[in-house]
Specification:
The chain has 74 residues and is mostly helical. The protein is built from 1 helix and no strands. The protein is rod-shaped and about 105 Å long.
Amino acid sequence: MKKPIVIVLSALLLLSSITYYIITQHQKQQAQEVYKLVHQNLLMLSKEYNKGVQKMYYLKKFDEAKNKIVKKPN
């Protein structure tokens, strides 16, 4: 009489273990996908920021040259 209960409990344990493994793997995969997406967006943001910094440098040099040519009256 106890043998069928042990078999059923063993099957439930195996099924729950497999379910837990599948859920865990799915969560890991989702986390990796989110990480890749965030990484790509941060790289894009960094590139655009660096472009902006470079343009600000050119603008500063242009402003310095303009100020040498056009002097403000005191």
